[in-house]
Amino acid sequence: MTSPRTALVTGASSGIGAATARWLASDGWQLILAARRLDRLESLATELGGRAIACDITSAEQVAALPEVVGGRLDLLVNNAGGAFGQEPLAEADLDQWQQMYDVNVLGTARVTQALLPALVASQGCVVFVTSTAAEAPYEGGAGYNAAKFGLRGLTRALRREEADNLIRVTEIDPGRVETDFALNRLEDEERAAAVYEGKLNLTAEDIAETVRWVASMPAHVNIDTLSIMPLDQAER
Question: Model-level pTM?
């Protein structure tokens, strides 16, 4: 009997991460769900029959615990955890916030991927990076977030080349405007956050999750390199 495929999803407690976990569970994946908010995570893990682990990806100690939880093989890593802080232009930017964005979006993602790479190599697995259209289209007030996501794009593309001989599939998914708690977490103001989405067509977390599911379902010889996904009324390029 074939063992169930195992997936680890970071940032799984809400939004795209939680939606991705639900889609993967519906396809029979065995799930390991990682996020900072363990209370939300445990409820989702119980719902889906998965395992929850508290993990702040900026913490080397917490990330170091992941390989033991995963074991010797991992079929799919979904690097979804990330964040944006502040909207000031460079002239007024709080560089501590820029450091925070780089730590979580780039170094945190690199830390998780590095820790789990041996298990991915063992299974000739797949790594999906959920990034942003901010990795390809700079915008006013987004310089710090743009810089972090451009950095993550570079990491993703380098990893694709580094691990090709190990038959590791690497995919970058760049969502545009997705209506989740992202804007509220960034702006810390419900009215301003609601205005980001008001009167616009918006993607849902499920739209992106279904794309992750599709990428993960492709045959082992197929690599989906980069996907940009935007609502119909958004044109970043």
Answer: 0.92
